[in-house]
Specification:
The chain is α/β, with parallel strands linked by helices. The protein contains 19 helices and eight strands. It has helices at 6-9, 25-36, 61-66, 83-99, 111-118, 163-173, 183-191, 195-205, 207-210, 218-231, 235-244, 268-284, 287-298, 300-304, 325-328, 338-371, 392-408, 447-455, 458-481; strands spanning 15-19, 39-42, 69-70, 104-107, 260-265, 381-385, 435-438, 443-446. α8 crosses α10.
Amino acid sequence: MYQDSEMEMSRVPLLVILGSTGSGKSKLGIELARKFGGEIISADSMQVYKDLDIVTAKVTKEEKQMAVHHMLDIVDPLTHFSVIDFRNMALPIMDNLISNKKIPIVVGGTNYYIESLLWKILIPNVKEKKDQERNILSDNDNDNEDSNGNTQAMLGRSGTKDESSSKKKMKIDGKIDTKMSTIEETKEEMSEQTNEVLYRRLVEIDPEMAQRLHPNNRRKIIRSLEVFEQYGKTHSEILKEQRLEGGSGLGGPLRYANAIIFLLRCDKEILNKRLNQRVDAMMQNGLIKELLEFHRKYNEDRIKANLSPDYTKGIFQSIGFKEFHDYLILPEEERASKKGKILLEQGLDCLKLVTKRYANTQQKWIRNRFLRRVDRQVPPLYELDCTDLTQWESTVYDKAVSIISAVLRGEKPEERPINENIKDQKTSDSSNEFQNYCEICDRIFIGKLQWNAHINGFKHQKHLRRKRKMEVPNSEKKAKSS
């Protein structure tokens, strides 16, 4: 185990291990925890739930004994658990480790969980106490949703034009009452309003933010209105403050100044083969038995009551349930039949496909949020090639140890961070994009990307040609009359 002085340990308050599923993040995390006396913070939105160890790919009991793990098996499988719940539980653990001169090693494939620890980016839950730290807002909050759709914006249903809605509409159309009794009442009221009414309200309260949003983007419009009700400041004003504090369009400044990020990279073809083998290993280790037992325990009563299984809540949203749904609901005697075998094989193929898609999504997220952002504070990010597992010691472990050891000694690592000179940089998001209105098509587009795609698109060009043809006869008529 690595021994060092308090001053040296303070140079690395946080390690983060990124990479797609199946790249070896857990393995590296355990190795580094053992080497440097750190403890692991699991940042996986499904592994926080109890049970289903196989389908959520949790570390084994033996691996847990090799290093201390936090944020595993802490929530009932059907409990609503959001990224904010995760952040609020994980940060005190990390701060306690740092105060005791231990390195928190954040490991996991849920990148928005990792972001909630690295940056001050989320709005506190309205039920949190007012005297708690006000976390910086993220303007591009679409990227801060967890897989359960748990954002701080309220997902209200579209309004209806009934009598009660009309009365509320009249109230909104009048003078804005910014001192409503509670935020919950505000949310309930907004859930009854049409998109048009909500957007007009935002134009009146925060015209700058309204110019950045499409009038039909209900979720973000409601979110901006809630920000105003909660903080007494407009969303656009808070975002300006955020930038002054060192933040970007994606959120506030870094929480920890000396974090280091390791990115495990693997050749795509090799990774896909590895993921297929991983799913096959899950099957051999009892994946179906695990799913069936959990299905009987939590899902059968719901199905008997003619209610559809809800794969958007709790651990049911984990990859594996939806894919094997048709097989799981078969009567026991039918599972060994030809039909059962076909459904099982289809579920297996689907699980492999979805797992590979998820790996691609993780890689895209890392590229767009960690590597391409020129306006965001990102810790030094070092790439480790895990394509050839026979070379793991030299290409992954030794490199990571060398980098950490150099930083602990106050030296510059020989390995250069890959985010030092990124050519393909990105700064565009909803924090710096505005509306563009096409008079010809009578449509609104947000940002240059959407606008350029529209004006160069087939439909716009077709409408433009039609308009020009109509203008020619009109001009001829005017010429004759004159």
